[in-house]
Amino acid sequence: MPEVVLAHQVDFATWRKASRHFVLAGTLPESIFWRVADIGQEAAWSANAAQNLPTAPSGLNLSRRFVGVLAQALQAHDPDRFQILYRIVYRMAHAGLALTDTSDPDLLWLRQSVAAVRVDTLRFREVFSAFTVQGVGDVLHDVPEHYILEASSHYCIERNVRSWRVVTPYRRMEWAGGVRFAEGTDTVTDDASVQWQADGTGIWRGYGLSVLPPQRKDVDTAPTLALLAARAMDCRACALWQPASRTVFGEGPEHAAIMLVGEQPGDQEDLQGRPFVGPAGQLLDRALQDAGLHRDQIYVTNAVKHFHFTWNGTRRLHHKPETEHVAACHVWLNAERRLVQPALLVMLGATAAQSVLQKPVTISRTRSRLFLLEGQTQGLVTVHPSYLLRLRDEDSKQREYAQFVEDLRLAACYVAQRNDARTGIKKGS
Ligand code: URA
Q1: 275 lines ligand 1 (CB under 6 A)
Q2: N or C: the chain end with fewer CB closer than 10 Å?
Q3: Separation of 151 CA from ligand 1 center, angstroms?
Q4: Pocket of ligand 1 contains residue 278 by CB under 6 Å
Q5: What is the pTM of this model?
Q6: What is the dihedral of CA 242, 225, 289, 286, to 10 degrees?
């Protein structure tokens, strides 16, 4: 009986190599024994006898999406998962199993496992995200139901550039400029004898790509902003996700009265993972202050959540997002609006206005006045702060900046009056 030793619980690379090898050789599922090695003690299976294999009748062409499904199911906490997954692939190649067969028990298992892993992954990401925001200590202790930690390593790195450590009963994961893993533990002990292994073991490499991107219903049904942001981390709805370092999601209070929408993250935002933290963000902060507002009161986001750039030597040159990028990201903006339900939505520049209003907008004709959007939200269009940064002559700079502050003041007044009216109603009643 052939034995396949996997290097660790989520060693998808070895499982995939071995499965391909044995499916092509026509090896029956029940005749393979799968097990996980003691980490660092044993070498994983390798296909040194992989030559001259007979070809399976229908070949073995699995779509990238389906490979992602398999990788996700491999994280399920089920000791039989390696065999069941192999059996699915074997039956697809040799016995005509169709993925559309909704009553097949193996496919039912696959669907349920993927769903359970997704739920656990999103739960963990929400916990990690809160841990990052609170900035309390460097060690997060978590008890996942499934083997989900490795597949979230890229998420954790994107979310938090400080050093951190996550401890779970089955694995420890640490980031300090590089990812390292060690055996899990039930307690948060920092004992010096822990044997850390660098990412060279391949534990997490490639897993980012195997993680399934969120589906439309994940976006439309996210119950909180934290969960929505966690789901957006894997978005690949347009081509921008690949060259960009990360998804830069919106941030701010869950029920902020004002929501500001910009165009897309720039170089600094892409590196820091937060909207409006570069030069345009600094100018925006100053203008908000001059208008009597403060950034902490406002939910700040962008029409497009990934940085669009080309390399110029060692510099990344910003490019405007294309129509398809704005269209692909529109669902995220809508979901943010659904959750924040701002009283006033301020569109900074033409891209933001076009995304919100769903039609081309001329800023000079639309700016500086309030108008009703759907859902009781007022809209206000103004210029983008980058426009102010690009102005060359000092007079125009000052004039345009003053007008920008005036627009923000209009926003501040509207929200203040609305609050007064509400307080008045409460007092009167
Ligand atoms: N410009 C934007 O539109 N958004 C940012 O987050 C930064 C610069």
Answers
A1: yes
A2: C
A3: 29
A4: yes
A5: 0.66
A6: -10
